[in-house]
Amino acid sequence: MSTTYLPTLKQLQYLVALRDAGHFGRAAEASFVTQSTLSAGIRELETLIGVTLVERTRRVVRFTPLGEAIVDKARTVIREAEELADMARAAGRPLSGEMRMSVIPTIAPFLLPRILPRLREDYPDLKLFLREEPSQAACEALHHGRSDCVLLALPFACGDVEVAPLFDDPLYLAVPQGDAHPGAGPMVADDIDAARLLLLEDGHCLKDHALRACPHPELRGRATMLGTSLHTIVQMVDNGLGHTMLPEMAVEAGILDHTQVVARKIDAPKASREIALVWRRASPRERDFRLLAGVLSTAR
Length: 300
Prior knowledge:
alpha/beta; 11 helices; DNA binding; LysR_HTH_N; LysR_subst-bd; WH_DNA-bd_sf
C-alpha cells in the first residue's frame, strides 16, 4: 500500500504569507521565521506535490496560475484548522483565548477606549488582538482568516457574514464657529454646501455614509475627497478650509476639543450609520461573538 504525503499546515501558511507579502523577507518576518526557513518550506511543498507554485527571480515573486489556485484553497484549509481549535475553546470559558478583531479607523479611536477597560476587567482571559484598517480590507481579512470578526459601520457589503447590530451613530456637520448660526437647530441636507465639503477618500465607508445622507447629484462631484483621518480633517475645518461630516461617537469622544469647530446634527432620513459586529457564517465561536457584541453595544 502506497503512502500519501500531505502538505503540512506550516507549509500552507508559508505559501499564503508569501502571497500576501509578495516578498520572501517580509513573508518570513510576518511568519516569525527566517527567510531560509520559509523558502525551504515552500520548496518542500512544491517537491511534495510535484509542481512549481512560485516563479522566483532576483526582484520579483510571481505565482503561477496553479499557485494562485492553491493559495486560495490553502486559505480555506488554514481557516478551518483554526476553527477546530476555536471549537474546543468555545466549549470552555466564554470570551477566553485569542481573538483577532478588525476595526475601521472611524470607530477605533472613539469607541475602543471606552470599552476595552471593561473587557479586560470582565474577561481577563480574553486576548483581543486589534487590526485597524478600512472596511474593504477588514472584510477581506475576515474572509481570508486573518481576522475573526470585524467592528464596522453599515451599510457596507462585507460578503456572507453574520451581523450583530450594536447601535445607530448619527452624523453631524462640523463647521468653523464663524459659519455656525447662533441657536440654530439641526441642519437639513439642502443647507450643506457641497463645494465646501471635505470627506475621507475612497476606501473609508464614512464617505459613502455622508453621501448617502445628502443624496444630491452635485455632492459627489463637488465634495473634496482627502486621503487622511478625521482628526486631520477637523484641523482643516478649524482653519476655515471647509466643512465635514463627523459621526456622533467622534464628537462625544472629544474630537472637537481645543478647536473652534461647531457640530450640528443633520436632519435627514439616512443621516446616520449603524455600528455592527460581523463574523463568518457558521463560525464555531458565534456564542463568543454575540457575547462580545452585547458588551460593545453598551459603549453607547
